[in-house]
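Per your request, structure below.
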């Protein structure tokens, strides 16, 4: 069907805003990833009834539907060639003492402001800050710096309300037959095949579902492939009264990750890393031999933690010890701008594709991960920018690619993912599979787990219209539709 026909039909059945002009289709053909996929129409439903009508229409006509939050995802998971469902009109928040009931389109920034007034916060904090949405964070199982202490979204998701492709509204968890059916598909043998890492956004997180009251967790990281999230109940916590942020300078990445494995034992609230490619863009007089920085934050037992840290770190210098709120915030902003700083050094024929940017291993294995990075850098003669969530063993790796060499990008990705799986890691700790990694989900988990994933997808979306080719796919999309 042509865009105009789909657009006018959806307008007729729902009366909500539908766009299919060139400008809007171009705008929604990109997100924060390296991909470009042009949709047919963009729809802005205002209530559940409208979503149900759109999904029934799309099911009947076999048109793909891709839900979209703020489009800050890094692997093209919010891009689709059919209908884009922008959830921005789903914007209500209700705060309760220990949890918040939030609609999918609520922006993180709005949520934070509302919670702050009550002295509360939501643990997972993607570095993109205020711009992502509740729906997007759930659907990618987002994490962030403070996930080290407070977990990823999956650890903080109490309940979720979704609409499946047939237009059925489901609350998870519930006591329904549907819940029982899904629960029966998950067993210990399947769960054993998941990597031992503290965060993981690859595939469906069956390892986190051990009882009926965990079933909402199947939606965390599902990337819009199982249902449209309309609202969620998420855990909130009291804001810490005090924080200390200590910034450590290391000569190189290796030394920093060796210390990271020791520092996590002190239970910091965050342990983050940036390498020299980023440091060189920060206006500050670092010691000339600074090759890597660690950001260590404690929000409990501050004085003791600071003293303990001093005892265990080696080959490092303390650059800053910050306790004032404004200063702590300023330096976190510097860390959170790592990607922006990396882009400053780019020339027009260089790019930083998001392909191998999100592997996670156990923190003790970070040295092995760094070794893999070094070998790839040497073999392909590439500079590689590295930053990320060292405490979680999750490093964001951006090789600087020249002249859009897609063949080389694919080769690097295959090599990198195989090695990560070999050392017991996940190919994605927080950004998800999307267009970049869905074809590797089977490699990550093996046939048995993958066949359960397929059965689950079939239950939620029998006609495969919900964000097709994400997570479950037979296609290789990694090097297709790359705009870089
Ligand atoms: C500079 C930068 C820093 C980042 N740092 C981090 C970080 O530290 N940690 C981290 O985890 N991520 C990070 N990200 C990635 C990204 O911000 C997060 O994944 C974020 O949670 C995506 O939210 P969004 O609203 O933009 O979702 P989108 O990009 O719009 O969508 C992401 C996925 O969610 C699905 N989706 C969106 N809404 C719904 C819904 N209502 N129902 C079902 N599915 C839905 C989409 O289909 C898509 O699959 C970063 C991104 C950038 C650009």
């Amino acid at each position: 069907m042509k865009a105009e026909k789909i657009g006018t039909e959806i307008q007729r059945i729902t009366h909500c805003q539908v766009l299919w002009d060139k400008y809007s289709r171009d705008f929604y053909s990109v997100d924060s990833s390296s991909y470009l996929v042009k949709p047919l129409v963009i729809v802005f439903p205002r209530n559940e009834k409208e979503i149900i009508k759109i999904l029934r229409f799309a099911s009947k006509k076999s048109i793909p539907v891709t839900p979209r939050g703020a489009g800050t995802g890094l692997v093209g998971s919010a891009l689709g060639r059919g209908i884009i469902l922008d959830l921005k009109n789903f914007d209500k928040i209700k705060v309760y003492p220990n949890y918040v009931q939030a609609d999918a389109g609520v922006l993180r920034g709005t949520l934070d402001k509302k919670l702050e007034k009550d002295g509360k916060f939501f643990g997972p904090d993607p570095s993109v800050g205020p711009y992502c949405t509740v729906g997007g964070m759930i659907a990618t199982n987002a994490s962030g710096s403070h996930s080290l202490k407070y977990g990823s979204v999956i650890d903080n998701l109490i309940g979720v309300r979704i609409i499946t492709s047939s237009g059925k509204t489901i609350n998870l968890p519930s006591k329904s037959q549907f819940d029982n059916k899904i629960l029966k598909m998950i067993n210990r043998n399947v769960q054993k095949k998941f990597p031992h890492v503290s965060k993981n956004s690859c595939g469906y997180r069956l390892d986190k579902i051990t009882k009926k009251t965990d079933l909402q967790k199947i939606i965390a990281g599902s990337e819009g492939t199982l249902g449209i999230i309309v609202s969620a109940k998420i855990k909130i916590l009291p804001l810490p009264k005090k924080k200390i942020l200590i910034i450590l300078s290391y000569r190189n990445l290796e030394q920093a990750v060796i210390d990271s494995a020791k520092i996590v034992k002190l239970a910091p609230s965050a342990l983050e890393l940036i390498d020299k490619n980023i440091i060189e863009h920060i206006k500050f007089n670092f010691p000339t031999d600074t090759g890597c920085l660690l950001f260590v934050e404690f929000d409990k037992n501050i004085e003791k933690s600071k003293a303990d840290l001093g005892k265990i770190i080696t080959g490092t210098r303390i650059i800053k010890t910050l306790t004032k709120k404004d200063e702590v915030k300023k330096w976190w902003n510097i860390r959170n701008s790592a990607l922006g700083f990396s882009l400053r050094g780019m020339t027009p024929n260089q790019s930083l594709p998001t392909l191998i940017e999100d592997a996670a291993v156990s923190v003790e294995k970070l040295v092995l991960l760094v070794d893999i990075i070094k070998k790839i850098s040497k073999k392909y003669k590439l500079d590689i920018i590295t930053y990320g969530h060292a405490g979680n063993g999750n490093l964001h790796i951006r090789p600087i690619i020249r002249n859009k060499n897609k063949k080389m990008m694919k080769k690097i990705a295959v090599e990198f993912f195989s090695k990560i799986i070999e050392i017991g890691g996940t190919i994605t700790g927080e950004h998800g599979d999307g267009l970049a990694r869905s074809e590797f989900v089977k490699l990550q988990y093996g046939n048995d787990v993958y066949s359960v994933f397929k059965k689950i997808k079939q239950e939620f979306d029998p006609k495969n219209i919900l964000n097709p080719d994400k997570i479950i796919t037979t296609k290789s999309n990694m090097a297709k539709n790359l705009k870089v």
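DSSP finds 18 helices and 19 strands in the chain.

Regards,
D.
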